[in-house]
Structure to design on (375 residues):
């Protein structure tokens, strides 16, 4: 089956190491994962995120509808504001995580994961029953580029007539990039400061605007980055990967996402009743961070032990370039989630020592990430 191409595919094909990522032809790296990872932590990197799902939700009851499908409080948003949340099934299983941006009183932009594009749109469409709302999938009509790192605003400013620093975190606003009309949201998946740029009115069949914007950003000093760096960056930041750390068999409480679930918002939402029961009884497992204290690389599916007792399983793992250590996210029985607790990860035939650590983020956020103390 032929792989789907994104708005930036022509650049990837010429400069990147392209692989199959959920049916899309995407670059896993250009120069290499480590230099690309470090560029984002230290300066500025750009990622093609055009494979992600993008939907306009519009209509007189759009707020009621989004509050029904989203765990967070959409009704509390004002124009230009966005919020992270999850869509739950009635049993509280996570359909996907997503960001919803309010563009106007009756128009919102919904952004979700690439691997769930078809599933999520079908889920949203199914749940429109009874609401006066219209959904339009614009994933192939709008390019998407993530500009990430402590120098993201500086680099983006070189391609724009207006200052992107005027856009606050989790806000979205119009911005011209490469001379084209775009929306820029101060969000991202790296833990760093940065923006997700939506290149408007640019069909994937002829994505001249997106390619021009990408080229201008590279010329302004941004390093092109691939999927490898995107994964190592998000893991260091303790961010969830759908299909690994969350899916339809996990719920927001055990995943550490209770902060994104507004149980007291005015309207009922999918999964609320089930979540009330989970909160009352307590989750049966917890997502924790582990840093290995011996050599080894933890991977998805590896078992975690306390002595001879199996207590959980790794969902995401790998080497953290910023920390020069191996780290992992894992679901453990809740009584083992205490910071400092020593555990072992079974890597092939070896029991490799590790300990439970703070993991949102794994690094010192006074030195790295969007909260870092500016020198």
């Amino acid at each position: 089956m032929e792989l789907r191409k994104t708005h930036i595919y022509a650049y990837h094909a010429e400069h990147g190491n392209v692989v199959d990522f959920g049916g899309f032809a995407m670059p896993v790296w250009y120069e290499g994962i480590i230099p690309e990872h470090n560029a984002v932590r230290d300066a500025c990197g750009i990622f093609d995120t055009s494979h992600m799902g993008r939907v306009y939700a519009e209509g007189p009851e759009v707020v009621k509808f989004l509050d029904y499908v989203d765990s967070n409080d959409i009704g509390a948003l004002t124009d230009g504001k966005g919020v992270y949340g999850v869509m739950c099934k009635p049993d509280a299983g996570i359909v996907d995580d997503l960001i919803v941006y309010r563009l106007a009183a009756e128009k919102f932009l919904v952004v979700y994961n690439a691997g769930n594009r078809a599933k999520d749109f079908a889920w949203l469409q199914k749940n429109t029953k009874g609401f006066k709302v219209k959904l339009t999938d614009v994933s192939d009509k709008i390019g998407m580029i993530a500009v990430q790192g402590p120098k993201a605003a500086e680099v983006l400013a070189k391609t724009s007539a207006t200052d992107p620093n005027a856009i606050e975190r989790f806000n979205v606003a119009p911005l011209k990039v490469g001379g084209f009309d775009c929306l820029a949201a101060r969000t991202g998946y790296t833990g760093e400061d940065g923006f997700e740029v939506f290149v408007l009115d640019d069909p994937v069949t002829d994505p001249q605007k997106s390619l021009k914007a990408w080229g201008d950003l590279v010329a302004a000093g941004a390093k092109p980055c691939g999927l490898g760096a995107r994964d190592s960056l998000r893991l260091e930041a303790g961010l969830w990967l759908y299909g690994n750390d969350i899916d339809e068999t996990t719920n927001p409480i055990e995943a550490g996402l209770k902060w994104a679930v507004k149980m007291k918002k005015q309207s009922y939402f999918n999964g609320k009743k089930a979540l009330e029961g989970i909160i009352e009884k307590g989750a049966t497992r917890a997502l924790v961070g582990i840093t290995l204290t011996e050599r080894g690389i933890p991977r998805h599916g590896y078992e975690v032990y306390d002595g001879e007792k199996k207590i959980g399983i790794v969902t995401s793992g790998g080497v953290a370039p910023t920390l020069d250590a191996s780290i992992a996210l894992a679901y453990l029985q809740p009584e083992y989630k205490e910071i400092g607790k020593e555990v072992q990860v079974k890597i092939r035939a070896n029991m490799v020592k590790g300990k439970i650590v703070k993991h949102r983020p794994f690094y010192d956020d006074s030195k790295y990430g969007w909260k870092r103390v500016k020198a």
About this structure: The chain is about 20% helix and 30% strand. The mean pLDDT is 97.
